[in-house]
Amino acid sequence: MAAYVWNPDATFRITDSVRGDIICIGRTFRRFHSRCAWGIREESPSNAATVRNLLGVMGANPPTLVTGQQLEMLARHCLCSYHQRQISQATSELRGHLAVAVQAYEQYNDVKRRYEVLRGALVRLLGLQDGGQSDEDLVLQIKCLIVLAGEFAPEAGDVRSLVILAQQFVLEAVDQSDEEMSSV
Questions:
Q1: Tens digit of each residue's pLDDT (9 = 90 or more) over 31-74
Q2: Residue 99 pLDDT more than 90?
Q3: Spatial CB neighbours of 114, under 8 Å, sequence gap ≥ 6
Q4: Number of helices and strands (H, E) in the chain?
Q5: For 120-140, how does the pLDDT look when each residue is reduced to its tens digit (9 = 90+)?
Q6: How far apart are the C-alpha atoms of 70 and 108, rounded to whole Å?
Q7: Cα 141–144–146 angle (5° rounding)?
Q8: CA atoms in the 13 A half-sphere facing the CB of 157
């Protein structure tokens, strides 16, 4: 299964995608409450460096480990001098973006857990060795077993019943895993 990718810069929309500069996340009232987008680097190179370091620290861990203090510091350094009064509003906006990232991360972990249960159930059911082989290798082994089952039991009904039995076994394993997780 593919790894989860958490990119705080993209999540918080801190960097101007065209210029690659850190931009102010303050809100302007003249332009329908849109983002200021003033370049932070021109105003304060140290703020831009701090922002890049903060984004690196946040990106090295899952989004669930981002703290309120980090968000406030990020907001403080991502506001131009004109919008410094908007720290609490900017922090709140960053919290909203973080909540979406945390939800996506938790959904990913749930899918990953279900995937691992399903994979384990298939390996046990089919009597395969789970030596950490890739998914492609596991699929290839399963296909070989199906072909072998078809050769030893040429009636299509026998192969179909084997597949149905495998599906039932896997569904029961996933249900048991869900029950175990809900009781924790």
A1: 677 888 788 876 677 788 899 999 999 999 999 999 999 999 99
A2: yes
A3: 174, 177
A4: 7, 0
A5: 877 777 777 766 777 777 777
A6: 24
A7: 110
A8: 0
Q: What is the pTM of this model?
A: 0.71
Query: Which value, to the nearest 10 degrees, does the dihedral of the CA atoms of residues 25, 27, 31, 36 take?
Result: -30
Task: Give every CB contact of residue 100 below 8 A, 6+ residues apart in sequence.
Answer: 11
Tell me which of 14-23, 84-93, 101-110 is least confident.
14-23
DSSP 13: T
Q: CA–CA separation, 71 vs 98, rounded Å?
A: 9
Element (H, E) at 59: helix 45-59
| Interatomic CA distance for residues 35 and 72, integer angstroms | 18
Q: Where are the domains of the chain?
A: 8-105, 108-183
Tokens of 163: 């597949």
**Residue for token pair 């492609």:** 136
Q: Kindly state the average pLDDT of the residues 102-107.
A: 96
Q: Rounded to a whole number, what is the largest CA-CA distance in the chain? A: 78
The distance of Cα 140 from the centroid of its chain, to the nearest Å, equals: 28
Among 103, 93, 89, 135, which residue's Cα sits nearest to residue 116?
135
